[in-house]
Structures are given as C-alpha cells and as structure tokens.
Design a protein that fits this description.
The protein folds into 2 domains: 167 residues, Ribonuclease H-like superfamily/Ribonuclease H (Nucleotidyltransferase, domain 5, 2-Layer Sandwich); 51 residues, no CATH class. It is α/β, with parallel strands linked by helices.
C-alpha cells in the first residue's frame, strides 16, 4: 500500500501558544506514494485575539480579514479527518505541532500523536544533509531551483505546496529502487536459445555514459549518507584485491 503523507504548514498570531497565541491559517497538501493527489485542506481561522505586528509583517494576514472566518473548533473535525492515519511532513515541526496540539486540546480533541502515523521534520532532515548551510524553506527552494517567486508573504497552503517539492528533492532516489512490474523489459531479446534448447546468454554491457551516471549517483548517495554507501563499501574489497 502506498504511503500517505500530508505536507503541513500553519500561520499564527505570534510565536508562543503558551502565551495565548493562536493558529490563524492551516494549509495541507496530500502525497500518496510520493505523488501529489491534488487533495488539499486550507482554512483561515478567527483567533479571537490580536495578531502581533511582527507576525503580521511575515504572513500579511490581518484581524479584519479573519473577522468572519470560523474558529478552530468549528473546523477541527474536518481537519482531523483529513490528516488521520497519514505521516505529517512539516518544516520546523516542533513549532507547528505545539500550536496544533494546543488548538486540539482547546477543542477537546486528542493530540496529533493519537491521530497520525508520525511526524517528519524536514528542517532536521535538511540540517543533517546540509550541515552549516541555511535550511530555511526559501534557501531550500533556491538550492533545488524550485520557483518560490510567489512567496511575497508566508502562506500556509503555498508553503505546504513548496514543502512538497522540497521534500521530494531532499529524499530523491528513495523511489528509484521500486520495481514497476507492469513496465516492459528493456532486455527482452537478451536471452536466446541454441539448437539444443539451451539459452545463449548475451551480455549487455553498460555504456560509458551509463557508467558515469551510475558513479555520480553512488557518490551523491555516499555524500548524503556520510560515507555509508553500501555499494561503494562492497566495491572496495574488490578494488583492493585487484
């Protein structure tokens, strides 16, 4: 069964729910089997409190805009049903999880941990893969040539959509080991039979370009796994013995 993942982002009135700050926007994008399904959850929320000027400068959302929007408890069940059973993928997950668990508690609902299959923090993942580099969402978009030109302000749904692209780049290659059983074989004629009915094996050697691509991928895997590429480790004894 294909894994269901939800890219999630929030915008808030401020930086600390323990000081009374609330969620004012939730954006979710669904991936199934590492492919977007076009299913989303997006909701603006009335926080019943003033938005901090510093936060408004980041996301551009005003109290006037939110005045006629629903409260979290009015949409909480729809939100929970959308994310139920999925793995959440969040950039700087501790921030969003803290806010959302606070909102769920105020609505009398169980925390995310009881609803979802788990949480993956792409900020932590990026820091492990790119130590010493900037790993903000904008920085990662620039690194992977993802168009974020529409991100004048932070927005939960837009950021969740960008995060989906960033996540797929950060974890690229994970689906390269999957076998498409319906795909036609590229070596259909590699096996022929002689007069005695025994198969004659034809060796199809990789081209120089294919070997170069293979080596490049191995080096990328070795770099991202911090020197733990099993294929290179297996090749090392053979190289030493030759």
């Amino acid at each position: 069964m294909a894994v269901r993942q939800i890219m999630l982002d929030t915008e808030t009135t401020g930086l600390d729910y323990r000081l009374g700050d609330r969620v004012i926007e939730i954006g979710c994008v669904e991936l199934v089997g590492r492919k977007t399904t076009q299913k989303t959850f997006h909701q603006y929320l009335n926080p019943d409190r003033q938005i901090d000027p510093g936060a408004q400068a980041v996301h551009g959302i005003s109290n006037d805009f939110l005045a006629d929007k629903p409260r979290f408890n009015e949409v909480a069940k729809d939100f929970v049903e959308f994310i139920r059973g999925a793995e959440l993928v969040i950039h700087n997950a501790g921030f969003d999880v803290g806010f959302l668990n606070n909102e769920l508690a105020l609505a009398g609902l169980p925390p995310l941990e009881d609803v979802c299959a788990g949480v993956l923090d792409t900020l932590k993942l990026a820091r492990e893969m790119r130590p010493g580099k900037k790993n903000s969402l904008d920085a990662l978009c620039n690194e992977y040539s993802i168009d974020n030109s529409g991100r004048t302000f932070h927005g939960a749904l837009l950021d969740a959509q960008l995060l989906a692209e960033v996540y797929l780049w950060l974890t690229r290659g994970q689906d390269s080991l999957l076998i498409d059983l319906d795909a036609p074989s590229t070596v259909t004629h590699a096996l022929e039979f002689g007069d005695a009915g025994r198969p004659i094996l034809r060796v199809l050697r990789a081209t120089e370009d294919e070997l170069a691509d293979h080596e490049r991928v191995l080096q990328e895997i070795n770099k991202e796994s911090k020197g733990k590429c099993l294929w290179l480790e297996q090749d090392a004894p053979a190289a030493e013995a030759s």
